[in-house]
Amino acid sequence: MSRTLLGLDIRHDTVTAIIVQAGMKQRHIEACKSVTFSREADEEGGLGEALTRIGEEIELSGAVCAVSLPADRVSYRNLEVPFRDERKIAQILPFEMEPAMAHGIEEMSVDYLPVRLGEPSEILAGAVDKALLEDTQSALVAVGIDPVLVTAGALPTALSVARMPGTPQRTILVDSDETHHTLYLIEAGRVALIRPLNRGKTPQADIHALGNNILRTVTSYEELREAPFEPEIVLLSGYGIDAPAAEQRVAEFLELPVERIDCVAVPNDLEPMVALEEWNPCQSQNARALALTELEGWECLNFRKRGRTLKRQWRDYREQFIASGVLVVLVLALFLGGYIFAGSSLKDRRDHLDQELTALFKKTFPEVTNIVDPVHQMKTRM
Question: How far is CA 97 from CA 109, 197, 244, 346, 373, in A?
Fold first, then answer.
């Protein structure tokens, strides 16, 4: 059975969409389209116009859709909570987030990712304005899209990087577009911290500021955790870093190896089956990672509550599922036990009656030695 997925990466100045066809044996990118619009237009319906333009070239409706909002439109907090039960974490999360919010928590949609579960647990929480969600939803519905996943920035790319074979234990991912950098600190296969940054005015100033901000972010994270975080590599993603020899300059500034990734090389990664005119791996990376996140069911910040993954639902209600399953098994066992017992009793009763009938036949007709069907034989002789 084939599934159609839509990865929709929304930035301040660009919307990138890819269509993925996923079957039992293979999956591939079927179409892609990227549309640029001005930030001024974004305040006046620019997103809706961009989606309309995309919809004129590729079919959007009917696909299972995963959407990412601009990373800087989401507020991120690293929190420590005193228990590991994820249902309890979800219940107290709004109250933990409220002191850090500029607006009332009732105006925000919140979700979280576990960083370390224990007692206490460390989580990465995100909050986004419900008004932004509603505006985005309206623009999507207008072109026939009803997303199951609404997440933050290049988090899907960071999740893919965390699952890449050979990814170092402590990695920094820098995702860039024309207006922002976003830092993702990855530790032991988990996205541990997210920090959006404004771009510098010139390429040289931008790279210098980026290096300083990476150092500050690492220092802040170490103070937060009260433990060292020594990054082993910096990965650059996205399409915004265009200064000459950007990788080399960042590497020299940080004294770390720096690599640019155009494709997250996880197993069964998505590639176009045929050459696509508009295929740009750098610009399409996060849209592809969005589709992969939904396809694989990876845990991700999701501000669309009804889009919670089966994995998260299992963790939230595991005890109830197990208790219900045990109860169902006991009821079935009792039913089958009673059925088997009743059948065994009837067989014993039948065998006992057969023995009494045979004994009566022998007593009545002692001359008969070959007894096959005592009832029929008795009727015949009578």
Answer: 11, 21, 41, 67, 85
CA distance 196 to 78: 14
For the chain, how big is the Rg over CA atoms in Å?
32
- 173: enclosing H helix or E strand: strand 170-176
pLDDT for position 308: 47
153 contacts 16 by C-beta, under 8 angstroms:
no
Distance from chain centroid for Cα 91: 20
pLDDT for position 367:
67
| Contact between 69 and 10 (Cβ < 8 Å) | yes
pTM of the full predicted structure?
0.77
Buried b (16+ CB within 10 A) or exposed e, 155-171: bbbbbbbbebeebeebb
One-letter amino acid for residue 73 of the chain: R
Find out whether 79 and 98 touch, Cβ atoms under 8 Å.
no
**How far apart, in whole angstroms, are the C-alpha atoms of residue 196 and residue 181?**
6
268 CB contacts (<8 Å, ≥6 apart)?
27
Secondary structure of 72-135 as H, E, C letters: HHEEEEEEEECCCCHHHHHHHHHHHHHHHCCCCHHHEEEEEEEEECCCCEEEEEEEEEHHHHHH
In angstroms, the CA 245 to CA 241 distance is 10
